[in-house]
Amino acid sequence: MMTPAAVHLKHRSKRPLAAGGLVVLVVTVWMMHDYQLPLAPRARDLNRGRTWDHKSRVDSKGVAQVWVPPGCFEMGSDLMEDFSAHANETPRHTVCISTGFWLDRFEVTNESFLEFTRAGGFTERRYWSEEGWRMHEEMREPYPMLKAYAEPRQPRVKITWYEAEAYAAWRGGKLPTEAQWEWAARGPQSLRYPWGEKFMEGAANMSRLDLRCTRPVGSYPAGRSWCGADDMAGNVWEWVADSYDANAYRHALQVDPFTPPSGHSRVIRGGAWGGIPGGSASDLRSARREGWFAGDRKLSHGVRVIHPAT
């Protein structure tokens, strides 16, 4: 027969177990939020023996660029790795970029876009795709820029995908594919952010800073990516070459995947100062992707250009 003291202890023992279980659950969730799945052996093996040379140059239009060597990484997200992941980022999969390329170190600035305009960029048919020329038939000039966004070294915003494409052609380059862009942001370690695995204050212009505007390019050197590219997270979303397909990763190729332009929706990457579709810590993740109407002009949308290896 149990004594009163033993009965008391028996009933008390159940309470801390319940509380302890809750603590274990909370700690487990917290640890999983920062958990990174091991880099897939396939990507690691495919990168074995590669070297990651850091090179830079200035292109024929006077724009600074950095070298992005070929290599393999884990593209997209796994819901077990990142609770901020969206369904259109899944599944996480191995991707290889077969050829290196030169990438603009910074987002395209107002001063560079002005050169394109002064050189007849909006009236020279040769720079434009058939669809882009038709879409801009009634507006053969750039959108008037608001004063708060018009400083020479601020990124050019209020730019459509077709204008971005034409500007890239004027530069002798093109828009990066979605895979090229993410490789330049994440690198061989497949980092969550351009600067590392965890979010870091002061690494990007984003909505929580409440600046409500773009900043001159290169204002956040702490956020520089592995290849030397600035502002791959925050400041402005960046148009890339691909059409938007929410299920693209379910049938993507391993080598140089690309969704050719069709319809009216294109992919934007990188997050922004705020605006639409946003600039939260989740939006700044390198795997974050969103689709947008190619003919839209937003104060949070910009671009950067690549040149293939020569």
Structure classification? alpha+beta
CATH topology of the largest domain: paralog of FGE (formylglycine-generating enzyme)
Give the strand content.
5-15%
* Number of separate domains: 2
- Can you name the CATH architecture of the largest domain? Alpha-Beta Complex
Indicate the radius of gyration in whole angstroms: 23 Å
Largest sheet: 4 strands, antiparallel
- The counted number of beta strands is 10
**Tally of DSSP helical segments:** 7
Helix content: 10-25%
The strand order across the widest sheet is: 1-2-5-10
CATH superfamily of the largest domain: paralog of FGE (formylglycine-generating enzyme)
* CA-CA gap between termini: 89 Å
Low-confidence stretches: 1-35
Name of the top-level CATH class of the largest domain: Alpha Beta
Helix-strand sequence:
HHHEEEEEHHHHEEEEE
Mean pLDDT rating: 89
The backbone outline, from C-alpha atoms, is globular
Describe the structure.
This protein is α+β, with helices and mostly antiparallel strands. It is built from seven helices and ten strands. The chain has two domains: 27 residues; 268 residues, paralog of FGE (formylglycine-generating enzyme) (Alpha-Beta Complex), CATH 3.90.1580.10. It has a four-stranded antiparallel β-sheet with strand order 1-2-5-10, with no helix packed on it. A four-stranded mixed β-sheet has the order 8-7-6-9.
Summarize the structure.
The chain is α+β, with helices and mostly antiparallel strands. It contains seven helices and ten strands. It has helices at 4-12, 14-33, 41-47, 110-118, 130-135, 161-170, 178-186, and strands at residues 56-58, 64-68, 71-75, 93-97, 101-104, 237-243, 265-269, 289-293, 301-303, 306-308.
